[in-house]
Amino acid sequence: MYSLIKFFLFKKDPEVVHYWVMNQLKKWSANPIVKSILKKNFAVENPQLERKLWGLTFKNPVGLAAGFDKDAKFTDELAGLGFGFIEIGTLTPVAQDGNDKPRLFRLPKDKALINRMGFNNGGVKAAAERLRHRKSDIIIGGNIGKNKITENENATGDYEICFRELYDVVDYFTVNVSSPNTPNLRALQEKEPLEKLLGRLQIINSELGKSKPILLKIAPDLTLEQLDDIIDIVNTTKIQGVVATNTTISRAGLTTNHAEVDAMGAGGVSGLPVKEKATDVIRYIHQKSKGTIPIIAAGGIFTAADAKEKLDAGASLVQVYTGFIYEGPRIVKNICEGL
After folding, report:
1. Ramachandran category for residue 136: left, alpha or beta (phi over 0 → left; psi -120 to 50 → alpha)
2. The total number of structural domains that make up the chain
3. Is 92 exposed, middle or buried (0-12, 13-18, 19+ CB in 10 A)?
4. Among the four 67, 145, 153, 211, which has the fewest Cβ within 10 Å?
């Protein structure tokens, strides 16, 4: 059924389709009967799927990655599709439009996407207010970033604003310094600025008293030396883990026509092409840290076998995004039943 629906949806602009589908989901989920049908068809309830991490109990290990519900507009509706947790954002202190459109492209031959969204969002205050009024109790992660116009030397201030605004309405934080679509953002992954940023957030975390888990989202394109630095930084700042990984800037291995890919322009590649890279990063961090660093896996997860590969490599939880678009709303149930 979804294959037929996807056939028609994939003929339209990806960003337009995204918001149309999500608004339809919101509309139909308002009907209690439809909401019950969705839950029956897409949610899996099984105590064996539960995962306990950072003092939180995840009803299953399959989450929705950041970028899908940037502004926390659809958390209740997405919760009805069976996700174990949802990561909203990336959010910035001030609303921004992001990069010029078109900025999201499908590569069906590669089961991939290219995006250069550029942290488009309505600002952290508006998202925090929506989360205060949500109805579901699903675990929410807050993915935070800096505004495009903020220079890197002032970036810590942007992350601090987002951290404070979301503190009472999310269950954990993800610090995003790895998107390739905000100029110079990935420079913040270097050891000195990253230690400064995470150290400051940990100070605020202690001051606010509840000590929310802080995770770092990293790129799949880091060298082994840079990954060693990440491990050192996690241990030094005592943050609670990493999300591995973001999109890749590499175009290696794509089967889509090179001219077609070049015409799409800059952006990060997600989906199947990043699968192996993400798994390698997860395995390296897990082995090098002797399993002391909790990892949320993202990148190329479409099936239960994909999820198991990430878990076997050392991840504690997984997130889907591109797989959700290609596989449809049954992806969580299919992965959970497979696991």
Report:
1. beta
2. 1
3. buried
4. 153
CA-wise closest residue to 223 among 269, 292, 277:
277
pTM exceeds 0.90, yes or no = yes
φ, ψ dihedrals at 296, nearest 5°: -100, 125
Give the mean model confidence (pLDDT) for residues 124-138: 98
> What pLDDT shows up at residue 209?
84
Domain range spanning residue 40?
A: 2-338
Measured CA to CA, the distance from residue 22 to residue 73 in angstroms comes to 9
Is 300 marked within a binding site?
A: yes
Residue listed under structure tokens 């591109």 = 322
Q: What is the pLDDT of residues 232-265, one digit of tens each?
A: 999 999 999 999 999 999 999 999 999 999 999 9
- Residue 268: pLDDT band (50, 70, 90) is very high
Q: Give residue 160's pLDDT.
A: 98
> Does 327 score more than 90 pLDDT?
yes
Residue 90 labeled ligand binder: yes
pLDDT at 278 over 90: yes
Kindly name the residue from 179, 270, 289, 316 that is annotated as catalytic.
179
Closest alpha carbon to 176 in 273, 102, 282, 247: 247
Residue 88's CATH number:
3.20.20.70
Tokens 């987002």 label which residue?
162
Residues 6+ apart with CB under 8 A from 266: 116, 180, 181
Q: Where are the beta strands (DSSP E) in 146-294?
A: 172-176, 214-218, 241-244, 268-271
Residue 205 marked ligand-binding: no
